[in-house]
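Notes from the 1:1 (GR / supervisor)

We went over the backlog. Supervisor wanted to see one worked example end to end before approving the batch request, so GR pasted a single chain during the call. The sequence is below; no edits were made to it. Supervisor asked that the structure be written out right there so they could see what the output format looks like.
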Amino acid sequence: MVLEEKLMKHIDLLMKRYPSLETVKNEIIGAYLIMEQSYSNDGKLLVAGNGGSAADSEHMVGELMKGFKKQRKLSKEYADALINVDSKLGKILSEKLQGTLPASSLNGHIALTTAYMNDCDPLLCFAQQVNGFGSAGDVFLGISTSGNSKNILYAATVAKAKGMKVIGLTGESENKLQKYSDVCVKAPQKETYMIQELHLPIYHCWCLMLEDKFFGD
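Structure output shown during the call:
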């Protein structure tokens, strides 16, 4: 797959605003293309992280599951189908629902994760969710500033076994998540907070590109 010219503008702006990311430009593009291909084939994205990376996981999913910069109007066919079910409710839904890119933060299922951690093994809670939610052709994005978070590594292992693609979003140091990743984007910093300061513009760029690809004019 080749990156479309209209999408390259987002990469160019990212590089202009954050010149240090030039060292991982190809990886950022490669990770995007993995997500694009998955969504083109009706796949979904599963995201997980710890601490600040858990917040990034929820943040990214929020940008994908609703409009980010665009309104993402529903197709006429879907709008008509909603109205056909119920003319009053369907009209409101057809006007206010937005198109979505299916994504789930594995940090958000509190009842499931606490039950599994209590009954089984805390380090395998993300792996259990990938086991249940993931299918071949989906994508697992593991966000880990160290790239060595054990719960992320377990989840990545399950993802690979299920035929999913794995993207790592880490810091610049050599790390274990690279082994399982189809693409690992290593933000060029070593301090945790500095790594996280670069992770946000990277995944914002991905969200902008995906929205332009699937909901562009």
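Supervisor's comment: The first helix runs from residue 5 to 17.
Batch request approved.
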